[in-house]
Amino acid sequence: MSELKPVPPLDRLFQMGEVEWGVEWQGDDPDYVGDLGLTNEHVPALINITLLQADLEDLPDDDSGWAPVHAWRALAQLRAVEAVEPLLTLQNRLDEYGDEYHMYDFPVVLGMIGPPAIPALATFIHNPENRLYPRINAGEGLCNIGLRHPEVRREALAPLVEQLARFEENDYEFNGFLVAQLTRLKATEAAETIERAFAANRVTEDISGYWGTVRQELGVAGMGLAPDEPPRPASEGFGLGMGPQDREPRDRQKEKTAKSKRKQQEKAKKRNRKRK
Predict the structure, then answer these.
(1) pLDDT by residue (tens digit) across 15-52?
(2) Cα dist from 141 to 37, 45, 58, 90, 178, whole Å
(3) What is the pTM (predicted TM-score) of this model?
(4) What's the rounded Cα separation, in Å, for the pair 117 and 142?
């Protein structure tokens, strides 16, 4: 771990120990701000502690190795907008390594920071140079902001609609998450864009559900561009009205997604074994 000697009360973060794996943090337990007396003056140091997570191979196996996780949670409670861009940049590194703790925490953290985070999240989600799951995380952050702050709902969902409008360029899985996020926001104003993505057969339905399910949740009639459910497979193994040339790109994408997930899981298991 990098040489960092935090002073009280930040030294307490290095003593708090392991965060339970696979449990989504709800944002209020522990109360870092109340229990440790943290203020905005501590934000720069908390960001520095958070960035220690980038050096995953150097994190110690003892309680101090969990300090970065506690630090980004403290930043969330402080609503520290200064932390948004460093956290977003950190995501690419963590995703590359296979660290999945941020996948559970960062959407909550970004949602708690709130409306001031929207511009940076919009820029990040639109940048194809960022990795897939970090961009999905940014979308979840925007969705959480819109749900927490109804007064900025339209501002929060606009980048999601704009990104989904690029469905031909997006990964199928990315489109599935975008549709799911817009559905959670009850974004009826995005119904046409969503339906066009389904009509183009560019959405992974095991994430978002079929167009019929989405349409019902949004309470819209639709334009008739996409079926409520995909055609049932014919006896030769292809959907009615859908030839092998139509299914092949989607099958390749599903195989690619499955391989990616398996790779991420293996990396996460290695990292978990190291930290126990």
Answers:
(1) 999 887 666 788 888 999 999 999 999 999 999 999 99
(2) 26, 23, 28, 15, 12
(3) 0.83
(4) 8
